[in-house]
Design a protein that fits this description.
By secondary structure, the chain is an alpha/beta fold. It has 17 helices and 16 strands. The chain is globular. The structure holds pyridoxal-5'-phosphate. The site of pyridoxal-5'-phosphate has 15 residues, from helix 6.
């Protein structure tokens, strides 16, 4: 008789019978049973067996203010009581949506004037596609249709978001929408580890210019990129990259879209990632951190260049969602932004916890398995390497990343594996002491992984 285990088994059985999970191989999951997360506080989550786990991924990159923030609960309760829902289609509006649009524009800066709301990052990128094509059509250049993106980018999972993204496995299931082109990602450690980092950044940005000229300048509507690629494995471009991308977009008059779904709302030490990496996008996608994931909300911050054309000449934009400007989601976002401001989390990431994590990741590089360790704000990644001196990786079939992830999970740490790249993006409320705690768990997982590999004869280490 073990009621806790009975409960876990019951829920796992029902889960397996009825809940089709996102991005999941169900045969594998059913055999094992899903881990049931039952509660959370600050940077920790608990499963149904009572295990406490340090969530170094902020859920899915979204719980910026951490779990258990009562102010967000109160904001939702208050708004649900007053006005749980109303749409903004038919010349109506609501107070939280208005206030949130104003607030986001203030945080984004004077380059921007409007916000278009959705409920997710994927939907927001659909909005981006429709908006940039409508923009060029309004200006009498409807043939400016193609949007250039990058390999290994992640822009969501709807047809449009998936097509914009650069994940081959996703493209292979269901095909792509027309009018999307891809260039190579600016991944220095994998593509050109021996090249000077800044020179590589300029060269990688140059691939955009090559693609524009190949497609024809008059055919290209926009370029889209995450300031720092997230789901692709926390790929941090050289600092020369984004200013050069901006220069190229300006030169050919192409709209620039930054997908700020992860980088927005403080993740890398500015309100928006573009403010740190040195570009001024015409459109910025946001979601995730805007509500810290407490409720679904997303949208697009619209720059003045686009907003003016659409508003003055565009007529009716035949686009919108039932939940565009949802009052409860917007009220929660306002409370979330209020916490980020009052606790000074953006500055804390920039000046304290970000640099502290960078220092710790610098030390991590001496571990025999760790190659290419790098951080920016509170995003970080490294590659598990077989022989880092000679830049030799493990064979993909070995699934070394998954072995390491298993040891993280087993020891109370959530860290994500993207192939053999191990990545983190902890809540912005994480303290230096908690970073130490997280690092100890990372070392433990690395040592256990190394022991496994040595036992299997996959890695020889000089004593
Ligand atoms: C998560 C993510 C998306 C998709 O957001 P959803 O809310 O899952 O639709 C889009 N872009 C980036 C950069 C993301 O990280």
């Amino acid at each position: 008789m073990n009621t806790i285990t009975d409960f876990t088994n019951d829920i796992q059985a029902i889960d397996s019978a009825h809940f089709m999970h996102p991005f999941t191989d169900h045969k594998g999951l059913s055999a094992k049973g899903a881990r049931i997360i039952t509660k959370a506080d600050n940077i920790y989550i608990w499963d149904s067996e009572g295990n406490k786990i340090l969530d170094a991924m902020s859920g899915l990159w979204c719980v910026n203010v951490g779990y258990g923030q009562q102010a967000l609960v109160d904001a939702a309760t208050k708004q649900m009581t007053e006005l749980p829902y109303y749409n903004s289609f038919f010349q109506t509006t609501n107070v939280p949506a208005v206030k949130l649009a104003e607030k986001i524009v203030q945080l984004a800066g004077e380059h921007y004037s409007h916000v278009f709301f959705s409920s997710s990052g994927s939907e927001s990128n659909d909005t981006n596609i429709r908006m940039v094509r409508h923009y060029w059509a309004t200006l009498g250049q409807p043939e400016r249709f193609t949007i250039i993106s990058r390999n290994n980018a992640y822009h969501g999972s709807t047809m449009a978001g998936m097509s914009l993204g650069g994940m081959g496995g996703m493209h292979a299931q269901g095909g792509m929408i027309p009018g999307i082109a891809h260039i190579e990602q600016p991944y220095h450690y994998a593509l050109a580890p021996d090249e000077d980092r800044d020179a590589f950044g300029i060269r990688a940005a140059g691939w955009l210019e090559d693609k524009i000229l190949e497609l024809g300048v008059d055919k290209v509507a926009a370029f889209i990129g995450e300031p720092i690629q997230g789901a692709g494995g926390v790929i941090i471009p050289p600092k020369t990259y984004w200013p050069e991308i901006q220069r190229i977009c300006d030169k050919y008059d192409i709209l620039l879209i930054c997908d700020e779904v992860i980088c927005g709302f403080g993740r890398i030490g500015k309100w928006f990632g573009s403010q740190l990496v040195g570009c001024k996008p015409d459109l910025m996608t946001f979601a995730k951190g805007v509500t810290s994931g407490y409720l679904p909300l997303g949208g697009v911050v619209v720059g003045k260049r686009v907003a003016q054309v659409l508003i003055e000449k565009g007529g009716e934009f035949n686009h919108g969602y039932t939940y565009s400007g949802h009052p409860v989601a917007c009220a929660v976002a306002l409370a979330n932004i209020d916490i980020i401001e009052k606790q000074g989390l953006v500055e804390q990431v920039l000046n304290e916890t970000g640099p502290y994590l960078a220092q710790k990741y610098g030390e991590l590089a001496s571990h025999p398995l760790v190659g290419g360790a790098e951080t920016i704000g509170l995003m970080a990644g490294f590659v598990l390497m077989r022989d880092k001196a000679n830049h030799v990786m493990f064979e993909e079939e070995l699934g070394v990343g998954m072995i390491c992830r298993g040891h993280c999970f087993g020891n109370g740490l959530i860290m994500r594996a993207v192939g053999d790249r191990m990545i983190i993006a902890p809540p912005l409320v994480i303290s230096k002491t908690q970073i130490d705690e997280m690092m100890a768990l990372i070392y433990l997982a690395l040592d256990k992984t190394l022991a496994d590999l040595q036992q299997q004869g996959l890695m020889k280490i000089a004593a």
